[in-house]
Amino acid sequence: MRRLRVLVLMDEAFVPPESIEGVSDEEMLEWKTEYDVLTTLQEMGHDAKPLGVSDDLGVIRDALLSWKPNITFNLLEEFHGVPVFDAHVVSYLELMKQPYTGCNPRGLMLAHDKALSKKILAYHRIPTPKFIVYPRGRRVHKPARLKFPLLVKSVIEEASLGISDRSLVENEKQLKDRVEYVHNEINTDALVEEYIKGREFYVGVLGNQRLQTLPVWELVFKNLPPDKPNIATAKVKWDFETQKKLGIETHQARDLEPAEVASIGRLCKRIYRALSLSGYARMDLRRTESGQVYVLEANPNPNLSYGEDFAESAHAAGIPYDRLLQRILNLGLRYKGYV
Predict the structure, then answer these.
(1) Same domain, yes or no, for 21 and 94?
(2) Residue 240 maps to a domain
(3) Which of 59, 83, 282, 288 has minimal CB crowding within 10 Å?
(4) Torsions phi, psi of 127, nearest 5?
(5) Structural domain of residue 246, as residue ranges?
(6) Which CATH number do you get for residue 138?
(7) Does 110 reside within a domain?
(8) Are the beta carbons of 264 and 313 closer than 8 angstroms?
(9) Where are the beta strands (DSSP E) in the chain?
(10) What is the pLDDT of residue 159?
């Protein structure tokens, strides 16, 4: 393995400390991915150093010109506090002819705009829940083609930001209130889609042209009350107490026939290609009792923390964490988004 100079690009608020002695799991949650990736790359023998970025491309330019890294490991999820601006940072890396890990600018832009991505998927006849977008300032009126219950969320935010139990609405009043919440509190347009009752699956995909799907992973609620839907709210994803209370587990999906696993894998590759993704991504899916699979969304550059879903599913496929990071580096070095 060739030793590389790796610039690990991250939000300046998430640059990890040099030591985690005395730091609790909850305290390190925000920067765990950054810590895991940085320290593992260093343990692998790469010359990896972090670069915190907030709203100034100049610091990236200075680091590229002065240090001349072989590749930039991109862990940025936003720029200037705007989630969709990460695509512009990657475009800047391409303008600088700098190899980088993860998704290309086009794929980031298409996937982050959930409404646009759903239109593209619909064009390719890939099943996704019926939906409508309510721009800020637009009056809320449910079209007849949409049936309650409906799920209301931001059209661009990631990591379940703004999603809670109140996001699932059963009538016009609840719909209006929740759309106004997204408009006023999250400060984005609102995406409203039909709620698909069923099992929630996550499928990782690795590759540029030749794609590999990872084992189907499932989000399980062991202690879910009978009247409560199995929604991956922000608290379900990030709050330890909620996870403990609801008995949240993620593991390889059980009781799926090999033919169904293969079919889901083919579906995820179609999504990946339809949205022009590269590097690595995670597909969020719902499977109904009848076996129909719907795509909820595609997530380029998903959470890479050690022990989280993507890394765990890769490990189940025989790819331990260090080899996973090396695969991602290799894909970035081979991807040519520039001449």
Answers:
(1) yes
(2) yes
(3) 288
(4) -60, 125
(5) 197-334
(6) 3.30.1490
(7) no
(8) no
(9) 5-11, 47-53, 71-74, 131-134, 150-154, 168-169, 190-194, 199-207, 211-213, 217-221, 248-252, 279-287, 293-300
(10) 61
d(CA 301, CA 199): 23
Buried b (16+ CB within 10 A) or exposed e, 47-75: ebebbebeeeeeebeebbeeeebbbbbbb
Instruction: Check whether 212 has a pLDDT greater than 90.
Output: yes
The pLDDT of residue 77: 92
Three-state DSSP state, 140? coil
Question: Which position has the higher pLDDT, 233 or 59?
Answer: 59
206 and 254 share one domain: yes
Q: Kindly state whether residues 79 and 137 are assigned to the same domain.
A: no
Report the CATH number at residue 327: 3.30.470.20
270 and 315 belong to one structural domain: yes
Residues near 256 by Cβ (< 8 Å), separated by ≥ 6?
Answer: 216, 264
Q: Is 13 within a domain?
A: yes
The residue with tokens 């590389």 is 4
pTM score, whole prediction:
0.94
**Strand order from edge to edge, sheet including 47-53:** 47-53, 5-11, 71-74
**Residue 119 included in any domain:** no
Residues 231 and 315 in one domain: yes
- Residue 291's CB: how many other CB atoms inside 10 A? 11
Q: Can you read off the two tokens belonging to residue 171?
A: 């009538």
Residue type, 138: R
Q: Which of 18-27, 139-148, 234-243, 277-286 is most confident?
A: 277-286
Which residues share a beta bridge with 72?
7, 100
